[in-house]
Write a structure and sequence with these properties.
alpha/beta; Pyruvate-ferredoxin Oxidoreductase, domain 3; about 190 residues
Length: about 190
Protein backbone atom coordinates (compact mmCIF):
# COMPACT_ATOMS: atom_id res chain seq x y z
CA UNK A 1 0.00 0.00 0.00
CA UNK A 2 1.20 3.52 -0.79
CA UNK A 3 1.97 6.11 1.82
CA UNK A 4 -1.07 7.43 3.62
CA UNK A 5 -0.82 11.07 4.73
CA UNK A 6 -2.81 11.90 7.85
CA UNK A 7 -3.96 15.28 9.14
CA UNK A 8 -5.81 16.24 12.32
CA UNK A 9 -7.84 19.41 12.88
CA UNK A 10 -8.41 20.94 16.34
CA UNK A 11 -11.18 23.50 16.61
CA UNK A 12 -14.25 24.56 18.50
CA UNK A 13 -17.68 23.63 17.21
CA UNK A 14 -18.90 26.23 14.75
CA UNK A 15 -15.48 27.23 13.37
CA UNK A 16 -15.80 25.11 10.25
CA UNK A 17 -13.16 22.42 10.85
CA UNK A 18 -15.44 19.55 9.81
CA UNK A 19 -16.47 21.42 6.66
CA UNK A 20 -12.82 22.25 5.92
CA UNK A 21 -11.78 18.60 6.30
CA UNK A 22 -14.51 17.59 3.85
CA UNK A 23 -13.60 20.35 1.37
CA UNK A 24 -9.92 19.38 1.57
CA UNK A 25 -10.78 15.73 0.90
CA UNK A 26 -13.03 16.60 -2.04
CA UNK A 27 -10.36 18.84 -3.58
CA UNK A 28 -7.74 16.10 -3.15
CA UNK A 29 -10.11 13.57 -4.73
CA UNK A 30 -10.60 15.85 -7.77
CA UNK A 31 -6.79 15.83 -8.00
CA UNK A 32 -6.74 12.02 -8.19
CA UNK A 33 -6.11 11.10 -4.54
CA UNK A 34 -7.95 8.53 -2.47
CA UNK A 35 -9.34 10.32 0.57
CA UNK A 36 -11.08 10.16 3.92
CA UNK A 37 -12.55 12.97 5.99
CA UNK A 38 -14.37 12.43 9.26
CA UNK A 39 -15.13 14.26 12.51
CA UNK A 40 -14.94 13.38 16.18
CA UNK A 41 -17.32 15.27 18.38
CA UNK A 42 -17.30 15.67 22.14
CA UNK A 43 -20.21 17.46 23.75
CA UNK A 44 -22.22 18.72 20.81
CA UNK A 45 -22.53 22.39 21.65
CA UNK A 46 -21.25 25.56 20.05
CA UNK A 47 -17.73 26.30 21.26
CA UNK A 48 -16.94 22.76 22.47
CA UNK A 49 -13.61 21.28 21.29
CA UNK A 50 -13.90 19.10 18.19
CA UNK A 51 -11.49 17.19 16.02
CA UNK A 52 -11.65 16.31 12.37
CA UNK A 53 -9.34 14.09 10.37
CA UNK A 54 -8.12 13.66 6.81
CA UNK A 55 -6.30 10.88 5.07
CA UNK A 56 -4.96 11.07 1.53
CA UNK A 57 -3.14 8.48 -0.55
CA UNK A 58 -2.31 7.59 -4.14
CA UNK A 59 -3.83 4.15 -3.50
CA UNK A 60 -7.08 3.01 -1.85
CA UNK A 61 -7.23 3.59 1.91
CA UNK A 62 -8.36 0.55 3.87
CA UNK A 63 -7.79 1.79 7.43
CA UNK A 64 -10.86 3.26 9.16
CA UNK A 65 -9.77 4.46 12.60
CA UNK A 66 -8.64 7.77 14.06
CA UNK A 67 -5.58 9.41 12.58
CA UNK A 68 -3.24 8.51 15.43
CA UNK A 69 0.02 9.70 13.88
CA UNK A 70 -0.72 12.70 11.69
CA UNK A 71 2.07 14.48 9.87
CA UNK A 72 0.05 17.70 9.95
CA UNK A 73 -2.04 19.26 12.72
CA UNK A 74 -4.23 22.28 12.06
CA UNK A 75 -5.17 24.36 15.10
CA UNK A 76 -8.20 26.44 14.12
CA UNK A 77 -8.51 28.10 17.55
CA UNK A 78 -5.26 29.02 19.32
CA UNK A 79 -7.00 29.02 22.74
CA UNK A 80 -6.92 25.23 22.43
CA UNK A 81 -3.12 25.28 22.70
CA UNK A 82 -3.44 25.64 26.48
CA UNK A 83 -6.29 23.11 26.74
CA UNK A 84 -5.43 20.24 24.39
CA UNK A 85 -2.13 18.52 23.59
CA UNK A 86 -2.26 19.30 19.88
CA UNK A 87 1.09 17.57 19.30
CA UNK A 88 -0.13 14.19 20.60
CA UNK A 89 0.88 11.53 18.09
CA UNK A 90 2.29 14.10 15.66
CA UNK A 91 5.16 12.53 13.74
CA UNK A 92 8.66 13.80 14.51
CA UNK A 93 8.91 15.36 11.06
CA UNK A 94 5.34 16.64 11.22
CA UNK A 95 4.24 20.24 11.36
CA UNK A 96 1.55 22.46 12.80
CA UNK A 97 -0.54 25.16 11.18
CA UNK A 98 -1.97 27.54 13.78
CA UNK A 99 -4.60 30.21 13.31
CA UNK A 100 -3.16 32.97 15.49
CA UNK A 101 -2.20 36.59 15.81
CA UNK A 102 0.35 35.67 18.50
CA UNK A 103 4.03 36.43 18.05
CA UNK A 104 6.40 33.51 17.39
CA UNK A 105 7.67 33.82 20.98
CA UNK A 106 4.14 33.57 22.38
CA UNK A 107 3.42 30.51 20.24
CA UNK A 108 6.64 28.75 21.31
CA UNK A 109 5.72 29.32 24.99
CA UNK A 110 2.46 27.44 24.40
CA UNK A 111 4.28 24.51 22.79
CA UNK A 112 7.43 24.32 24.95
CA UNK A 113 10.28 22.15 23.84
CA UNK A 114 8.69 21.18 20.56
CA UNK A 115 11.06 21.39 17.61
CA UNK A 116 8.58 20.66 14.85
CA UNK A 117 7.91 23.11 12.06
CA UNK A 118 5.18 25.61 12.87
CA UNK A 119 3.26 27.75 10.39
CA UNK A 120 1.01 30.60 11.48
CA UNK A 121 -1.80 32.44 9.76
CA UNK A 122 -4.18 35.15 11.06
CA UNK A 123 -7.07 33.18 9.55
CA UNK A 124 -9.80 34.69 11.72
CA UNK A 125 -8.77 38.21 10.71
CA UNK A 126 -8.67 37.17 7.05
CA UNK A 127 -12.15 35.63 7.37
CA UNK A 128 -13.51 38.80 8.95
CA UNK A 129 -12.01 40.90 6.16
CA UNK A 130 -13.16 38.66 3.29
CA UNK A 131 -16.38 37.14 4.63
CA UNK A 132 -17.46 39.46 7.41
CA UNK A 133 -17.64 36.47 9.78
CA UNK A 134 -15.04 34.88 12.08
CA UNK A 135 -15.01 31.48 10.37
CA UNK A 136 -11.32 30.75 9.68
CA UNK A 137 -11.59 27.46 7.81
CA UNK A 138 -11.16 28.65 4.22
CA UNK A 139 -8.03 30.76 4.82
CA UNK A 140 -6.53 27.68 6.49
CA UNK A 141 -7.36 25.60 3.41
CA UNK A 142 -5.35 28.03 1.29
CA UNK A 143 -2.43 27.75 3.69
CA UNK A 144 -2.62 23.94 3.54
CA UNK A 145 -2.54 24.03 -0.26
CA UNK A 146 0.75 25.88 -0.04
CA UNK A 147 2.30 23.87 2.82
CA UNK A 148 1.33 20.36 1.74
CA UNK A 149 1.35 20.79 -2.03
CA UNK A 150 -1.13 17.98 -2.67
CA UNK A 151 -4.24 20.06 -3.36
CA UNK A 152 -4.50 22.53 -6.21
CA UNK A 153 -6.01 25.95 -5.54
CA UNK A 154 -8.35 25.53 -8.53
CA UNK A 155 -9.68 22.32 -7.01
CA UNK A 156 -10.39 24.15 -3.75
CA UNK A 157 -12.19 26.91 -5.67
CA UNK A 158 -14.22 24.27 -7.51
CA UNK A 159 -15.24 22.61 -4.25
CA UNK A 160 -16.25 25.96 -2.77
CA UNK A 161 -18.47 26.54 -5.81
CA UNK A 162 -19.91 23.01 -5.67
CA UNK A 163 -20.43 22.78 -1.92
CA UNK A 164 -20.93 26.27 -0.55
CA UNK A 165 -22.44 27.63 -3.77
CA UNK A 166 -25.50 25.45 -3.15
CA UNK A 167 -26.07 26.90 0.32
CA UNK A 168 -24.91 30.48 -0.02
CA UNK A 169 -24.88 33.34 -2.49
CA UNK A 170 -22.24 33.76 -5.17
CA UNK A 171 -20.84 36.65 -3.12
CA UNK A 172 -20.21 34.32 -0.16
CA UNK A 173 -18.57 31.73 -2.42
CA UNK A 174 -16.29 34.41 -3.93
CA UNK A 175 -15.45 35.70 -0.43
CA UNK A 176 -14.36 32.17 0.50
CA UNK A 177 -12.22 31.92 -2.62
CA UNK A 178 -10.62 35.24 -1.73
CA UNK A 179 -9.99 33.90 1.80
CA UNK A 180 -8.32 30.80 0.32
CA UNK A 181 -6.05 32.98 -1.86
CA UNK A 182 -5.06 35.14 1.10
CA UNK A 183 -4.37 32.08 3.26
CA UNK A 184 -2.07 30.75 0.54
CA UNK A 185 -0.26 34.09 0.27
CA UNK A 186 -0.06 35.05 3.95
CA UNK A 187 0.87 31.82 5.75
CA UNK A 188 4.35 32.00 7.26
CA UNK A 189 6.78 29.64 8.90
CA UNK A 190 8.10 30.61 12.34
Amino acid sequence: MGKIREMRWHARAGQGAVTAAKLYAEAAMVGGKHVQAFPEYGPERMGAPVQAFNRTSDEPITVHCHARNPEMVVVVDDTLLSVVDVTEGLTQDGCLLINTEKTPGEVWKLIPGDKRTIYVLPATRIALETLGRPIPNTPLLGALAKIRGEVEMEHLFEEIRNTLGKKFTQKVAEGNNQAIRRGYEEVRKI
